[in-house]
Every structure is written in C-alpha cells, then in structure tokens.
Amino acid sequence: MSGQNIFDKLQNIDRKVFYWVLFITLCVPFMFPLALPIKVVKNTSDLYDGVTGANIEPGDIALINFGYGVSAWSECAPGIAVCTKALFREGARIVFMGSHYDVELTYNKLRSDAAADFAGKTYGEDYVFLGYFTGGESAIAQLATDAWTVYPEDHFRTKVSDIPLMKDFHGWEDIALVLSSDTGDVGSYFLRQWQGAHGTLLAEIGIAMNGSTDYPYYLAGNYFGLSIGSRGGAELEVLIGEPGEATTSMDSINASHILIVIAVILANVGYIVQRRKA
Amino acid sequence: MVFAITGIVTVLMFVEYFFFPQDWIVASTVRNWSVIILNISLGLGAVRLIMQHVMGTQRRRENWQFSALFLVAFVIMLFTGLAGYLSTGVATSNSVYNWLFNHVYTALGATTYAITGFYIFSAAYRAFRARNVDASLMLIAGCFVILSNAPVGEVIWSGIPAIGEWFRFVGQVPGMRVFGIVGALGTIAYGFRALLGKERGFYAGGAED
C-alpha cells in the first residue's frame, strides 16, 4: 500500500470513504439550499396539460392507480399530489385505487400533501378510495369492462352501489383519463388493457428507472404524458406553482449526481495515467 | 388438460377483443375466475412462506434467527390486523397495527431504498472505466444523462440537457423499441408453441428445468 502513487490511490479509494462523502454531501443542501432553476421537459408539460385546461371537464372521472409503495414515495408521490390538485381544481372527480399492499399509507400521505384541495371535496361524490386489489393484469382488464366485480366495496367496506360516484363508474367508457404511478408493471397493464384496447387517455408517473421503458410509449402517443422520478415531480411542482418535496429533493439530486460524475472522472484519470505508464 | 384450458381461454379472449367492443359476459366471467384464483394463490403463498420459515426455525438452518423474526412479525401483524378488521371491517383501524406500519415499515422501506444510492455511487466509481472505445462511449453518455437529470447540469453548461436528451431519445429509445417488439413477438411465438403442445416448460404444464 505504501508503494502506491497518487494515480493508484485514485483508482482504489475505499468504498467507506465514498459512503461518508456522499452522506455529508447530501446533508449540506439541507443546511444551505441551492434552489437552482428547474427546466420543464416536454413529456412533463404534456402530462400537466392533459390534466388541466380544455382537456378535462368538470365532472369528468379520472382514475389514479398507486402502483408504488412507501419506498418510492420520494419519486412518485409529488407527481401524484400535483395531478390530484390540478384535477380537483378543474372540477374532476377522482377514483383512487392501488396495486401495492401499503396503498392506504400512500392514500393517507396524498390526503395530507393535498389537504387544502381534499378539504373542499366530499368523499363518495368527488372522490373515492377503492383500496388494494390483487389479480394483476386480469384485474386491470376486468376493471375496464366491469369495475364493480373487481371492487364490490370501497376500502372502508361501503358497497359501491351506495357510493354516488361509483354509480357513474362501471368501466373504461366512464373514465376520462388514467394516471398510473408505478415502480413496476401496472402501467403496462393499463397500456394493454385500457389504452391499447379502448383508446383511454393514459399517463405514467414512474420512478426514474422506468423512464427508459416508458419513453417509447410516450413518443408513440400511448402515454399522453410522462413524469419521471423526483425530477418529473419537481417539474410538475414548478408547473402548478407550488414547490414541495420534489423541489426540495432536487438539491440532493444535484449534489449526488455531481459527486458521482466527479468520482467517475477521478477513477478514470487514475486508470488512464496508469495505463499509459504500463 | 392444461393445453385445452389454455386454448379455450385464449380463444375466448381473442373473440371478445375482436368481436365485442363492450363487454362479453363469458369472457368477463372467466376473467373474474382468474382474479379469484390469483387471490387464492396469494393466500397459498403466505401459507407456503410460513411453512418454509417454521421448518427453517425448527431445524436450526442457517440464519434461522431471521426466520423466527419473520414468524413473530407475521403473527403480530396478522393478529393486530385481524383485530381491527373484526371490530370495524378495516384492518388499519387497529392502533398497534397502524403504529407498526407507520413507524416501522415506512422507515424501513424508505431506508432500504435510500441505501441503494450509496451502493450505486460506489459501483459507478468502480465499474465506469474507459477500458476501450465502447466503454468510453458508455461512460460519456452516462455522465451526460446523469447531469441532464439534475438541474445543476444546465448551470454547468446549457448544452448538457440537450445532449442528455439526445442520448435519451435518439440513442436509447430505438434500443428499447427493439426490446419491446422482440419481446412481444417472442411471447406470441411462445404462446403458440404452448397451445400446440410443443412447449414443455413450466408455464405449459411441464416440469421446471
């Protein structure tokens, strides 16, 4: 180890050093926020345009699927909160449901994040929470044709026949648009069973990792909009004019991304110099 | 028998898709069955999981302590959830269940996901080396895409987001399209082979290799 020169050392920095450097770097923006401007990309603005203005009429029903758990709140929840606020402000009614077992926690978080908008709305008339469903793609297909068989009751065990909003929702033809927010495949179930089969308007609010899978569908027009990761959530917060969790997290994203690039450059400087010497 | 059932269900779904633009009660009923069967499989999975961990604990297999911990957690969540469900019809009405979910599960879930950031950081440092032209190109593209995802990229240089988007849309999307189309064609071919009895894999009723 003592015979190592600076370039050897650059290539072999202990991972524990990186962990500490990253930890400290992530802490700094909390004390000294950078608040850099956030540029909105087209796929995000298309999503926002789709849930506002002339694209949504008062009384239209939107279906929002929570396909993510607690672990993906930072990436998916801000986008869902903005879209919920926007839809409520347009007078739309919303049906919430979820394919993740901790869906109730996510629903409660949304109610807290968009508390002011929920406050003016009546449960059962303006919005309903159907809760968790199992059955994967078969259930999504069945939801398109006969929603009441998938959800005979809402999450709070009220029969759907007793819920005013549900009297207007029996299948795909009653839904103006679907927003699916996922860490996995549920968005593609809606893509095949709703958008592909019936032409329902569909948008995806996914984790950053799903971006590469979702882009081709967005460019082909299958998704009318796309929000990708925390960055997408921050862009939506910019569009609605209410900075929130995602905007705050952008400082950490800035710090961590810069740090990764610096680390990669350092490693490669060491590697290239060593290779030339050899 | 497996081929017959699979074949009938396939024909039903094809017929509904092409000839019934609204709802066809026969196909709808079959779909409901599948949802019910999938729900049953969820319960079956839970039973199998318990059996596995009970055996692990009884026979003191490697890491049996984790199995014991799993069983304790399972029993606590099951009974607190059932208590809430039996009293009000909603599992989350039980305060203990709620507390565990909100203050243990939530924190653990968020932490587990966040920790991956540290591993990715370390892995990027170790793996991204310009060993040849291909690796160098990937390295450059990766750096631009990383920086274009963060607002700081544009602050460093206004061209970074444009280059990052170019890599994302022009460089990456065609590849993903190819994956998607090839995967779909492969699934169709696999389905036909399964229906014709030529596919002997697990999904066609054969043994798992």
Defining traits:
heterodimer; A: 278 residues; alpha/beta; 2 domains; 12 helices; 53% helix; B: 209 residues; 3 domains; 7 helices
Give the strand order, joined by hyphens, for the main sheet of chain A. 3-2-1-4-5-6
* Helix-strand makeup class of chain B: mainly alpha
Helix content of chain B: over 70%
Low-confidence stretches of chain B: none
Shape of chain B: extended
CATH topology of the largest domain in chain A: Rossmann fold
Round the Cα radius of gyration of chain A to an integer and report it.
22 Å
CATH architecture of the largest domain in chain A: 3-Layer(aba) Sandwich
Give average pLDDT of chain B, whole number. 87
Question: Can you describe this structure?
Answer:
The complex is a heterodimer of chains A (278) and B (209). With 278 residues, chain A is α/β, with parallel strands linked by helices. In chain A, 53% of the residues lie in helices and 13% in strands. Chain A folds into 2 domains: 6-32 and 252-277; 42-243, Rossmann fold. Chain A is built from 12 helices and 6 strands. In chain A, strands 3-2-1-4-5-6 form a 6-stranded parallel beta sheet, sandwiched between helices. In chain A, helix 11 (229-240) runs antiparallel to helix 12. In chain B, helix 2 (25-58) packs across helix 3 (64-88), helix 3 packs across helix 4 and helix 5 (133-149) packs across helix 7. Chain B folds into 3 domains: 1-59, no CATH class; 62-122, no CATH class; 128-197, no CATH class. The longest helix of chain B is centred in the last third of the chain and has 37 residues, at 159-195.
How is the secondary structure organized here?
The complex is a heterodimer of chains A (278) and B (209).
Chain A: H1 6-11, H2 15-31, H3 42-50, E1 61-67, H4 73-89, E2 93-98, H5 103-113, H6 115-119, E3 127-132, H7 136-145, H8 147-150, E4 177-182, H9 186-198, E5 201-206, H10 211-219, E6 225-228, H11 229-240, H12 245-277
Parallel strand pairs in A: 1-2, 1-4, 2-3, 4-5, 5-6
Chain B: H1 2-19, H2 25-58, H3 64-88, H4 95-127, H5 133-149, H6 151-156, H7 159-195
